[in-house]
């Protein structure tokens, strides 16, 4: 009887233990098992995948840059994310601009593009640092360097009209500016200067003015200047305006062409006109001969020749009164003076 009682109690203990094990199944999971949905919901992630930078609004002194930050979302929704951009001048080390952009809740496990704008002076080069914050803590960062900001064209100077380039064919070396000598006098020449301007865009261009200057190569003095108004240029067409410039002969000149619109320079080009003995080119500066500024200020050529003759006569006189060793003024006259002084001294002693 006692044996049966003991067996019954043992069986009851086994049954209770089995039921307890079944009840606790799922309440405690193995460390190797995957996370449940509740755990995933609190573990959403966001990462920085790409940053793109492009020119936005460009003015004469400031360049606005559009910065697009690509964020990738995984897992449960993520809130309280902020993107910060800091722009530093690489030459001075000074911070030029800082922007902060809050991000709406990230969800759907997709990529989100966060757009911002930074403004910098239209000069120098810059480093743009991007920081991603979540709940006030930095979780991602990246940096990029940009150069050539000064080459960005302001909106007011934007035009599709260009000085024509003849490509790489047999006319590759032909300049967009050319000249011919229309007439000459004893000391002056009239140049007929023309250029080729092509509208490379898709819209008509109007309101353009061409200014051409003849600049003496040695001194940069402008000998003459002239302007020509351009009619409307249709897309894909080329205009060839021309002007007359009157310059002194026997000098070499740069022909500087400047294209204007509403008081703003929109394009420039340069060629050369060799009227003197040199062979001036755009790659080198002539060093032959000297500039006579009077040619450009109205001085009389006869006065210059007279002054040159006087100088030559003065130099000749100095040569005649020089000794063979090159010492100025020490010649026959000086020797005679010395001899007379010696004779006088001898008589005084006697």
From TrEMBL:
> Per the database record, which ranges form the PGF-CTERM archaeal protein-sorting signal domain?
327-348
Record's InterPro entries? DUF7490, PGF_CTERM
Q: Which GO terms describe its cellular component?
A: plasma membrane; S-layer
User: Which ranges carry the DUF7490 domain?
Assistant: 46-150, 172-275
Q: Which domain of life is it from?
A: Archaea
Query: Could you tell me which Pfam families the record lists for this protein?
Result: DUF7490, PGF-CTERM
Chain intervals for the UniProt region annotation (Disordered): 281-329
Composition bias, kind Basic and acidic residues: at what positions? 301-316
**Sorted UniProt keywords:** Signal
Quote the protein name from its UniProt record: PGF-CTERM sorting domain-containing protein
